[in-house]
Design a protein that fits this description.
With 630 residues, the chain is α/β, with parallel strands linked by helices. The chain is built from 25 helices and 10 strands.
Length: 630
């Protein structure tokens, strides 16, 4: 079967794999597991749609995918977001690396002496296997971690620390893999492990860094041309693939030209290139947009091909050993995380529970496993299959543990996590509550009329409606103050009293529905936004005639666009200019309010904690931005 025929069949299998991945997510399993399963079934051990050895012929698909995956990992390493936690993150990453390499590597080596995957291997090969296995199994998964955090709406110091640590660990592991591959190569070479490999390793790492930095600058220069997305995607994928081809060429050329092998770790070079574009050029947004659009298809191809390469007979044989390594990996991460947190003088949940957020594995780990199996075929298919089996277990159970611990540390929110108190229970108040809740707000209804409360609770059985008799005492008794108070009672004087008590309690935003204009100045004096139903309706109709697009936004008639006001609470955003915020391309910052003053921001405007940012864009992307800033 020709390469073209294999590629055509693989493309059809990948399309089916994408659908199967969605079925897996519907039953609570990761989509990656579905892709692996689809590839395994299509491979030479079940349906034989792709014969045994097809993955060798399709190696270029692996290289294209790995280049993109490393670009994504590098783009996640955004320095301004890590700056305020550098000491904690680096200390914990160092401790995890030391504990993980020692405990996981030692376990891999020990199991190789007694389990079937080590049959026929000598001492040097077992040591090489332990070094590579310990390194690969330390890799984490930023994309999976980000997906879970977005899914549950988590935010807080624990969440941001866990995500930052996950990103930094992937960089550490890629660098460590380059070193481990050099050690393994020296062990498996004719001369065995000698100190002469150290300068060669330093040369390899230095050249990879230089190439990565240069490629990052080249990508940024190209993206400034402003060509269409399809062209940009093709070029970025080609550059990633080109780095792998260049690494292979230099490896072969160096043996004849200089007498020793120079191996440029392509994953390290592409990861550094992604980091350079994100942090040291003005093309971060364009680059991330390209990666965001292309990565779903690339993930399908990569994980499906990994599934095709699985030796199912070997997989079943190594599952018990994989389960042991799965548990040992958790223990190693727990030891390293706890030790690192103590050294960094962290306490509380970060010190005792962070390890539960660091179990997930996916793209980089599988990429390293594939690299190890291709570079060192003498270690056998069983070793590569064992590592993949452990990664699959981590990908299945890791997200579950992450969701569990985010709930335990009370950093799981609802939508953007804001709260509104709506006073005055009527049909309009109930509709407002429903619309705010659909947008992710938590709402509380209150009224001073017992009859209104009883009638509303009878009609809305799922709601608890509070009785509000004394406004000052009401706010004093609340466990958590709302972000906004909406006064919709029928008595303007009662609405004014409520808004005044809210302001005195420290609530910044109050909104009131007013029936008569007599108290307008009193409301304005305390900073309340007043809505006069008659004039508001007239103004909306005028906007619908003069500026229909703006009216659609106000009336929520356009499901693809929304206006959201976000209060900046995250420490990582404090003091950063607008241009350094990771805003998706479709998000536009309209206004910034600081201590009652509205500012028209530009890229150099500095963000402060407590600022209110008004943004327009796609609803899902707005909520993603809110989760980063709040």
């Amino acid at each position: 079967m020709t390469t073209f025929e294999l590629l055509a069949i693989f493309a059809l299998v990948s399309i089916a794999s994408h659908r199967i991945g969605k079925w897996f997510t519907a039953i609570g399993l990761p989509y990656i597991t579905g892709y692996l399963a689809a590839g395994a079934v299509a491979g030479g051990f079940v349906l034989e749609l792709l014969p045994v050895g097809a993955e060798v012929e399709l190696r270029f698909v692996d290289e294209i995918s790995l280049g993109l995956i490393a670009f994504v990992a590098g783009s996640e390493l955004y320095i301004p977001e890590l700056r305020d936690r550098v000491r904690t993150i680096l200390t914990m990453a160092g401790a995890i690396s030391v504990a993980g390499l020692a405990i996981i590597g030692g376990t891999v080596g020990g199991l190789a002496t007694v389990a079937s995957f080590g049959d026929g291997l000598g001492g040097a090969e077992i040591v090489a296997m332990a070094v590579l296995g310990g390194t690969v199994l330390l890799a984490l998964s930023p994309p999976s971690t980000i997906a879970v955090i977005k899914e549950v709406g988590a935010r807080g110091r624990f969440t941001s620390t866990a995500l930052s640590l996950t990103i930094v660990m992937d960089v550490v592991v890629v660098v460590a893999f380059a070193a481990s591959a050099s050690v393994a190569g020296a062990l498996l070479g004719d001369g065995g492990l000698q100190l002469s490999f150290i300068p060669i390793l330093l040369l390899d790492l230095t050249l990879a860094c230089i190439i990565g930095f240069t490629v990052g600058k080249v990508i940024a220069a190209y993206l400034r041309l402003g060509l269409p997305l399809v062209v940009n995607a093709a070029v970025v994928l080609s550059i990633g693939f080109g780095i792998y081809e260049a690494a292979d060429f230099v490896s072969e050329w160096s043996v004849d030209a200089v007498g020793f092998e120079i191996y440029l770790e392509p994953l390290l070079a592409t990861l550094i290139a992604g980091t350079v574009v994100t942090n040291f050029t003005d093309q971060r947004h364009t680059f991330e947009h390209v990666l965001h659009k292309v990565s779903p298809a690339v993930y399908v191809a990569f994980f499906t091909l990994t599934g095709v390469s699985l030796k199912l007979d070997t997989l079943l044989a190594v599952l018990p050993v994989a389960a042991v390594l799965f548990v040992v990996r958790i223990v190693a991460i727990a030891v390293g995380t706890t030790t690192g947190a103590r050294l960094a003088r962290e306490t509380g949940h970060i010190a005792s529970k962070s390890w539960l957020a660091l179990i997930t594995q996916a793209g980089i780990a599988l990429g390293l496993a594939r690299e190890a199996s291709i570079q060192f075929p003498s270690l056998g298919d069983a070793f590569a299959t064992l590592i993949v089996a452990v990664i699959v277990l981590n990908e299945i159970f890791g997200p579950m543990l992450l969701k569990y611990i985010l709930n335990r540390v009370d950093e799981v929110g609802q939508g953007d996590g804001r709260r509104a108190l709506i006073y005055g229970v009527d049909r309009n108040a109930l509709q407002l509550a429903e619309r705010l809740e659909a947008a992710g707000w938590a709402t509380t209804l209150a009224d001073d009329e017992h009859d209104h409360v009883a009638e509303a609770e009878q009609a809305e059985r799922s709601r608890t409606i509070l009785v509000l008799e004394d406004a000052e005492q009401f706010f004093a008794d609340l466990d958590q103050l709302p972000d906004t108070v909406v006064a919709m009672g029928g008595d303007d004087d009662a609405n004014l009293d409520l808004c005044r008590a809210a302001v005195e309690a420290g609530i910044e935003r109050t909104v009131a529905r007013m029936s008569h204009p007599d108290l307008l100045d009193d409301f304005h004096d305390i900073g309340t936004l007043v809505i006069d139903p008659t004039s508001a309706a007239t103004a909306l109709i005028e906007d619908a005639v003069r500026t229909p697009d703006a009216a659609e936004l106000v009336l929520h008639a356009d499901p693809n666009r929304e206006v959201m006001q976000i209060k900046v609470k995250a420490a990582s955003a404090d003091g950063r200019p607008v241009r350094d915020l990771r805003l998706p391309d479709g998000i536009l910052l309209l206004a910034l309010r600081r201590r009652g003053t509205v500012i028209s921001p530009d890229g150099f405007t500095t963000i402060k904690r407590g600022d209110d940012l008004t943004m327009i864009g796609e609803p899902g992307e707005l909520r993603e931005v809110a989760s980063q800033l709040m």
